[in-house]
């Protein structure tokens, strides 16, 4: 069986909850919940989780571009990217995130 590729999951957000996302968890809560859920479902993974606060200075140019697009209301936050592919925005759900991971070759050890 081939080993799934290493992935970088970026969660973009801010301390203030998105105005369109009433009753949704904060961006940081989403980051913590998502990383815990993925590590539980895919424990033998090579996934790096990165939280990007869109209200703080960002040195990485592509991350700054995404943050700018959120600021211009092109995207809602929290925004989840896997290897530069947008997986979800606003109210994040596990099913599309898991489906994206499976597309990259990850298999749940619980199946």
The end-to-end distance, rounded to whole angstroms, is: 16 Å
Coarse structural class: alpha+beta
Mean pLDDT: 89
Shape, per Cα inertia axes? globular
Q: How many distinct beta strands?
A: 4
What would you report as the Rg, rounded to the nearest angstrom? 14 Å
Helix tally equals 3
Sheet of most strands: 4 strands, mixed
The strand order across the widest sheet is 2-1-3-4
| Helix-strand string | EHEHEEH
Residues in β-strands, percent: 15-25%
Low-confidence stretches: none
Helix content: 25-40%
Could you characterize what this model shows?
The chain is built from 3 helices and 4 strands, in the order E-H-E-H-E-E-H. It has a 4-stranded mixed beta sheet with strand order 2-1-3-4, with helices on both faces. By secondary structure, it is of the alpha+beta class. The protein starts with 6 loop residues before the first strand and ends in an 8-residue tail after the last helix. 32% of the residues lie in helices and 21% in strands.
């Amino acid at each position: 069986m081939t080993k799934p590729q290493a992935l970088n999951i970026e969660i973009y957000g801010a301390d203030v909850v998105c105005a369109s996302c009433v009753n949704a968890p904060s961006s940081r809560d989403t980051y913590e919940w998502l990383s815990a859920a993925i590590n539980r479902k895919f424990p033998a993974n090579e996934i790096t989780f990165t939280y990007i606060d869109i209200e703080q200075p960002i040195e990485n140019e592509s991350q700054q571009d995404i943050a700018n697009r959120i600021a211009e209301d092109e995207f809602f936050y929290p925004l989840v990217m896997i290897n530069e592919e947008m997986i979800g925005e606003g109210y994040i759900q596990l099913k599309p995130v898991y489906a994206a991971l499976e597309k990259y070759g990850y298999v749940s050890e619980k199946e």
